[in-house]
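Usage

Read records sequentially. Each one opens with the input sequence:
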Amino acid sequence: MAGVLVAQAAEQLAVLAAHERVEVHQVDRAGRRRHRLSRSPVCECDVTFAGAGRVCQAAAMPSPADAPAARTQNARGRASRARLLEAAATCFGRDGYAATRIADITAEAGMSPASFYRHFPDKTTLLLEALAGPLDALLAATGPLTEHSTVDPEAIVARNTEFFRVYAAHRRTLRVLRELAVSHEDGLDEIWLQRRREYVDRIAGWLRRLQAAGELRTTDVDVLADALGAVLDQLAYTRLGLAAREPGEEDIATLGRVAGEIWIGALTRGAGT
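and closes with the structure output:
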């Protein structure tokens, strides 16, 4: 009987090892080696070679690809995922993407390293999710402006001010984008370019509507859109992202006004002539 149990345990450990690395954590008083997955979304139970204790039911568990999604379906899983995202934003903003380890994130979240893999397959996936909300908010900040076909100075200043306000709220996380821009690791530079392209394309679409309405004269809409976006990008990064102190509302209002003046000057120069 003992031989059968040993064979069953060994077979199931082989199944687990095919998914994730298995480590020996301790030897109990009876000399039984107890194994626990060091990082696995598949199973958390112990397996003992002497037959005592629970036998892992890995074959009945979700696959590693499905497990992170399954973990987030309950309130506890969602709370753990949110803690990891918040901790990641803190670590990435403080130490940068490259220097941040998964162990740093889980320590900041007060969770075990093994728990990370129940929610995210790797650090890059976590970074993208941590950035998704702030980037969507930045894009939405200029939405009302770029839906119109007129040059409204007050609206331009108001929308640019909102852009800086959103950036300031997430400045430590968003400044990691500059690190991605110069990184050639795992296509991270392309991630930054893709998200920025969405923003610049929205500005370009607005400029074309202005052009069609006779409100704008320019030799190249796409370059102008890139330049206007760069004004916001650079000011946000240097004046907010790298600021030694927390930006105040006065700082944000000043940036919105100055950026607005630059935009208005570029858009009205030569219009109607």
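Summary fields computed downstream for this record:
- The first strand starts at residue 22 and ends at 27.
- Confidence is low (pLDDT under 50) at residues 2-66.
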